Amino acid sequence: MNAKLDFLDGRNGLVSLLVLAALILIVFPLAMGVDQLNLTGRFLSFSFVAVGLVLCWGYGGILSLGQGIFFGIGGYCMAMFLKLEASTPEATAIQTTPGIPDFMDWNRLTELPWFWVPFHSLTFTLLAILVLPAAFAYLMGIAMFKRRVSGVYFAIITQALVVILTILLVAQQGFTGGANGITDLRTLKGWSINTDEALVTLYFITAVLLLAVIVLGKWLLHTKFGRILIAMRDREDRVRFSGYDVANFKAFAFCIAATFSAIGGAMFTLQEGFMSPSLIGIIPSIEFVIFAAVGGRLSLIGAVYGALAIGFLRIAFAEAYPQLWLFLMGTVFIVVVLFLPMAWPGSTRNMRLGRAAC
Amino acid sequence: MSLRSSERYRSSEQDRLFKRLRRTLVSSLIAAPVALSLSFSTTAQANSEWPTAEVNTTGLAVTDDTVKVGILHSLSGTMAISETGSVEAETLAIEQINEMGGVLGRQIEIILEDGASDWPTFADRSRKLLRQDNVAAVFGAWTSASRKAILPVFERENGMLFYPTFYEGLEQSPNVVYTGQEATQQILAGIDWAWNEKGARSFYLIGSDYIWPRTSMKIARIHIEDVLGGEVVGEDYYALGHTSFGSAINRIRLRRPDMIFHAVVGGSNVAWHRQLNAAGINGESQNVLAISVTEDEVLGIGGENVEGFYSAMKYFQSLDNENNQAFVQAFKERWGEDSVIGDVTQAAYLGPWIWKEAVERAGSFDIDKIREHLPGIEITTAPEGYVKVHPNHHLWSYTRIGKWNGDGQAEVVWESPEMIEPNPFPEGYQ
Prior knowledge:
The complex is a heterodimer of chains A (358) and B (430). Chain A is mainly alpha-helical and 358 residues long. Helix content of chain A is 71%, strand content 1%. A two-stranded antiparallel ribbon of chain A has the order 1-2. Chain B folds into two domains: 2-179 and 319-397, Rossmann fold (3-Layer(aba) Sandwich), CATH 3.40.50; 183-313 and 401-415, Response regulator (Rossmann fold, 3-Layer(aba) Sandwich). The longest helix of chain B is centred in the first third of the chain and has 26 residues, at 2-27.
């Protein structure tokens, strides 16, 4: 085997990556109709967040219950760009102020707020999707890790931040679309994102990006950074005494997870056609953690299976028992948390890697 | 009006007689074979008259004797409590239509889907209904957010949605029939009533903070200040679920408005009314007009807390006409004596009837053909009275002012003299 590919964990790692690639790039597209593929594509966009959580929670021991923030930043950035494109003066001629998004007009805004203006540019938008969440995560991370806030306290603070963000989004509806979110997104640079061909294309883009993110994650774990990450999780003080700046390393891991989530959010918006606060609140944020837990929190690839498994289960339940399905999902979540804390792929690897994260 | 209504009552009387007849027929053992052959013969007749290939050229779920429709509401989550009434009303209407022989000789089958108070779920479920189940119509959505989420799906897949809730307007889709009121139909006549009948000159506006109350208050303010020449002495918004209205109530006591005009929704409503009462603001001391309080809300708020306050709606459960008496009776028989029926529930009940009428006029289930025949459809058996579909897919409706009594029902104290034309994009009010 090529030594350069060592970071894929040898033959086994390569095989499991290829199996996933074959599944999402060949099997699903052949076996599924456009609708199901689109649905699967959205589950895949959730799994970006789960992959990020495996990095920062599974390996780094940083449990964030607020990944919805970053998923949301990515999703909203993309939605703002698409909404501006949809709000041409011709399309909005009926408004008091044509040329601004419809919800701004309803809220009596008469000009585009300054922070919306740069989102006319696709380049800026794409950069923002990558940089904004990382910057925000860095600020959050440094603020907390420097003060040695960790474990459950960190989780609670991230949860609180999610609540603050959703309240902000709902309350500032003139700027954000409020509880409705940013809806009715139709084209990307003139390319309709609603057609069947577009949905298939977006699916493949999502799948390829996801594989890229997983490979990047595996590579990161293989570097010295990855070793320090695990060391910090298991014996933070020893790493600190060895002269490493623990806070910075933790913040870096958190930033990576944030950027991964934002990429997922952006791909979600493109495939769903809208973005709303209900996608980033407490419940979605906790679901992301469950995806990672189901997949075995130490497996980047397992996280994808976790997101897919829960996603498909949810659809199956909802279709079979429209009045009961939430209870069934709740039962599944409880079972996962109680009885499968390390899930299946994680359990063997975990023994190899020593003590569990908590 | 009187001529039309007497006709209307006669036809609804016949319907009910027919229904009772059918029920006794079916329930008696001896008559069973007769009823069976009867229904067979009508089906056969209908199908020769309406061959499936002709009434369905676009691949909808229509067979020789059934047609599938979807009901898409929140059966779970925070909105379930509000949306259940709509599910019940739509189911009741469909059952009644089936009992009368269905639509174009076809029995309606319901596919029930749960939007789970979650907007992406609504979008998913509507995609499933339209693309997988190929339903001929969907009755559903309740909040504006859920409607906004599924609207692109209906427009792309060319479905037909019957949306029951009174809402902010500013929308008119060829793929939606709005059976509730748009904002001006509730607000303008309501404020005119306050101005003329109650002599109100100063208004305090208060609402929950989202698109519907904000749009409604925008229209209210323009009407009060620019059209009537009155005064708005305060305008407040509170986040959904907010429960502390002390500061607003203090301002209200200070500024002494002639009328409090409010659109507070959901759980906030309970706190808002209790705190008003605790501050000594009640039906005797203060005029309060709501556009968000129906029988369903009063159930939560408690009748004693809204006693003497007013609501502007198009329907109240207490409406005194034969259509409504039959409807209330049927609703209670089907869903229990304790059920209350609010404005939206009644609007939801209209959806299947309007769809049936459109299909029969078009002689087809095809969405494009239904759409052509929607404008001008009249339902004379509507509980709210006579209803007519406007070319803009909204309904003409009366505005009625109800005064709440202590037991959770309202007495209609005023009705707009004419039906109000729906105008989702009111010029001068934007």
